[in-house]
Amino acid sequence: MRISARESAVGATALATLLLASVTGCSADSDDGDSGSALLSALGALAGDTSTKQVSFLDAAEVRELSKDDPKRFASIAQPSSALLNPYQPGLLGRNFEEGQIDSAVDTDDAGHWKGSFDASAITESLKSSGYTQNDEGDQEVWSHPEGKGVSLKFSEDEISYSARDSDPMSAVTPKDGSSLADDKEFRRAAECLGDVYRADFNPLSSPNPVRLAALGQQAESAAKNTEVLCFVVKDEAAAKKLEADLRAAVSDESPKFDGTKVTIEKGDQPVVRAVVPDTAAQRPGRLILTDTELWMTAAG
């Protein structure tokens, strides 16, 4: 679910390559996010200097379970946002590689970390046939192209890390202690706000927008009961109150599209405005930045 630079300015997007008639509350309630521990753990695999990039997290194993009976419903959010899955550059991970081998993924536009079950021998053979060579970088065995083409990778039977950075590429996926995205204050706030999600998409915004980081998460009690969670990390309490009011107005104006939504403020040094939006069984997850973009645009515009 990649959001282009142009689209982030107006809040609209397409999902391919991270909300009513009744709105209640101004502080957290039973719909509060939890620690988002799985999400935070995934963010810990990326260096903090990627905080200016769009970031996506996917619990692919859970999506496969949810989509067994209705794959089309989850199609828009079922694929990791990764350059390694570019259909125009197939085969780098082996001819028999399948997305189903990925259990979880966290990606930016040029780096990422996957967990799953991988055929390391097939990947090695494919990389060699593509001209890649192996180099020892400290305690890492990194594969890269001698002409500086494409991505650099390190992998095992259960993990793949990759980066397309030109300089010190693997630093993007080998953060030093205390310097990962999970340690970034805004990303941590957003992840804790999202809670236990199977998909999360983060989009940093720049001044003069008072929203510093926008995030959309997907939660599901079952395949038929999906909830979308929007979290906006803002610069101060005044900005939070204004955005809360604007979101409530958008919910009311667009009724019944966002019926059942709750908008709240989570206070702190950097307040977070949270909108919890239930999807009907007929609405596809990801709609808040795919088709029903009014709430996203209210914050991003």
Q: Would you tell me the structural class of the helices and strands?
A: alpha+beta
What shape does the CA trace take?
globular
User: Using DSSP, what is the number of strands?
Assistant: 12
User: Average pLDDT value?
Assistant: 86
Rg from alpha-carbon coordinates? 19 Å
Helix content: 10-25%
Strand content: 15-25%
Walk me through the structure.
The N terminus is likely disordered. The protein is built from 7 helices and 12 strands. The chain is 21% helix and 25% strand. By secondary structure, it is of the alpha+beta class. 47% of the residues are buried. Helix 2 runs antiparallel to helix 5. The chain has a 10-stranded antiparallel β-sheet, sandwiched between helices. Strands 4-5 form a two-stranded antiparallel sheet.
